[in-house]
Amino acid sequence: MTGISISGHQGVPKEAIAEEAAINLERLCGSPGDGIRVAAPVDGIERIEARLHGKVFEPHRHDTYALGVTLGGIQTFQYRGESRYSTPGSIIIIHPDEVHDGGAGTEAGLRYRMMYLQPERLIAALGDNGGALPFIAAPVVGDVALRQAIGEALMDLDGGIDELALDDILTRIAEGLCRHAGTTSKPAGRSAKRAVFEATDYLRANLDRPVGSQELEAVSGLDRFTLARQFRKVLGTSPHRYLLMRRLEQARRMIATGHSLGGAALETGFADPAHSPRHFKRAYGVTPGRWASLALAG
Hints:
Layout: H1 14-23, H2 25-28, E1 35-38, E2 46-52, E3 55-60, E4 65-73, E5 75-79, E6 82-86, E7 91-94, E8 100-104, E9 110-117, H3 119-126, E10 140-141, H4 144-154, H5 163-181, H6 190-205, H7 213-220, H8 224-235, H9 239-256, H10 261-267, H11 275-284, H12 288-297
Antiparallel strand pairs: 1-2, 2-9, 3-8, 4-7, 4-9, 5-6, 5-8, 7-10
């Protein structure tokens, strides 16, 4: 939700939109410390973080889904004839072309992050499960799984999102929106399971390098969003997460047998060795160095 309406400008270059956002920032945000951070688009998906006081945005509408999470303060806006309020942790879902305004509900101000998802991207992620665009009557919802998916898309505004990770994020967002719209998805069939296992075999054979979505499409015979959706149904995780965990398993074995931390990271496909410790700790609860010392002591 943003008065700049980044994704709603037809035919205007993204660079011009970002420049307009910067130029108009002082006019839009009247209090010291207010600002809107416009991140680099990820595969055409716009992302922002806003810190605001008072009512900032006049009624406007986007041609995208506006999906976000309130991080601090109370977010208030008029939507479909009613006053709406979002507290920290709540998810905001604005349907394309719906008029809304926005601002902080208290003097303490407001902080939130939003992404702007094109309807065509959502339709692709829905695949055969999709029909009409899912409409969610309540624009403020509580949903742990959906919040996690949107949060992953908005976590790192300074960097990009891995291709396989983005496929999974979009399928989870699509499923979450359908869940709140009252539609359901189909269970995985035998052919889908076979395609998933063909993909896992390929991922295991290519742990030492980035694997692209097109490669898995060719191996499995499924488009990337269908594969991501069926992968999670069959194995409870995503292709990106599966590949990451197999890499970490291999790195853990290498470290335990005396390989250097940097060498293990490079040989298991972490082009930037600094990424390995962060992922390692998230997976196992300790850093690679701590794991090495424990393995040595054992």
